[in-house]
Amino acid sequence: MPLSDTAIKNAKPKDKPYKLTDEKGMFLLINANGSKYFRYNYRFNGKRKTLSLGVYPLTTLKDAREKRDTAKKQIDGGIDPSENRKAVKSAKAESAANSFEVIALEWYERKMTDKSEDHKKRALGLFNRDLFPYLGSKPIADIKAMELLTALRRIEARNAIETAHRALQICGQVFRYAIATGRTERDITPDLRGSLMQAKAGHFSAVTAPKDAAELLRAIDGYTGTFVVKSALQLAPLVFVRPGELRQAEWGHIDFEAKEWRYFVTKTEVQHIVPLSAQAVAILQELKPFTGNGRYVFPSTRTPNGSRPMSDMAMLAALRRMGYREG
User: Fold this and answer.
1) Which CATH number fits domain 204-327: 3.90.76.10, 1.10.443.10, 3.40.50.720, 1.10.760.10?
2) pLDDT digit string (tens) for 35-77?
3) Spatial separation of the C-alpha atoms in residues 300 and 309, rounded to whole Å
4) What is d(CA 208, CA 153) in angstroms, rounded to the nearest whole number?
5) Taking CA atoms, which of 40, 133, 186, 290 is between 20 and 30 Å from 140?
6) d(CA 106, CA 115)
7) Helix (H, G, I), strand (E, B) or coil at 323
8) From the CB of residue 298, how many other CB atoms can be counted at a distance below 10 Å?
9) Mean pLDDT (whole number) for 98-115
10) Are 28 and 37 in contact (CB under 8 A)?
């Protein structure tokens, strides 16, 4: 006789587990502790197997029968329902491991260790408030540029234009980290270049207040352009030299042992000695494998051999892109 809701409800536990049979291979297992499990016996490739269909009463008799019928259709189609369930669980686990939220937090833990607590708080708040609710659960490889733009437009809608640009910059760093760790193949953030409202321009030369200076430094840290330009922007506030002198810095003038940068200014006929802080040395050491084979520390992108320095427009264009302009 097929099972009924009443029979299942009234089934009492015994000293040992026992079964109440339904039909088409399904049965209810009543354990000694009173728990009740729906099960389905089937054969696949000549082997007898059992599939779990759920726990009563969270899974009703109707639900269990629907799951059994789905499993039977899979068997008829040459699919082992037990192996299919394992594959689905594995795919979900892999999808969760490759989600934007998991990768972003992994990036945060690895890349933000040397940042200030205020910087960390801002980045984490941006993730939790503006990005994770809409993109967090999605596999990063499946996120489309329009989906990211929709999330950024929500930030714009509350008139937080600079925050939207900062969010795009941080997303670019997360996507590039995902590429480096094999979780996606491309960074979609360049596709959104020019799609956000223009941030209100500020005067770079007038950045004197600590709060404004901190905002500029955060913008530089999140800059998504070329590594050479970003390095120049990061080094500038550490050496306090003219932009032209920085652009034309030569590796032959950098003394890592003495932690000094020595160069001769032809116009004034003065030998300049610029002490290099630990932070400045770290920036230069990280850059040296990229440009150290050439003459200039910051070479032009048009001269791969490093025979010409970066143009004066390179840094200005980068500052404009971040919402600043020269005084």
Assistant:
1) 1.10.443.10
2) 999 999 999 999 999 999 999 999 999 999 999 999 999 999 8
3) 5
4) 31
5) 290
6) 15
7) coil
8) 23
9) 88
10) yes
Beta strand extents in the chain (DSSP E only): 18-21, 26-30, 36-44, 47-56, 202-203, 254-255, 260-265, 270-275, 324-325
Q: What is the number of alpha carbons within 13 Å of residue 271 lying toward its C-beta?
A: 3
| C-alpha–C-alpha distance, residues 111 and 130, integer Å | 20
Q: What's the mean pLDDT in 165-181? A: 93
Query: Hey, what CATH topology would domain 98-200 get?
Result: DNA polymerase; domain 1 (1.10.150)
Residue pLDDT, tens place only, 232-277: 989 988 988 888 889 889 999 999 999 999 988 766 677 889 999 9
Answer whether CATH 3.30.160.390 is correct for domain 5-91. yes
Distance of CA 267 to the CA centre of its chain: 48
Is 228:185 a contact under the CB 8 Å cutoff?
no
Separation of alpha carbons 222 and 180, rounded Å: 18
Burial (CB count within 10 angstroms: exposed 0-12, middle 13-18, buried 19+), residue 122: middle
Residue 65, classed as helix, strand or coil, is: helix
Q: What type of residue is 165?
A: H
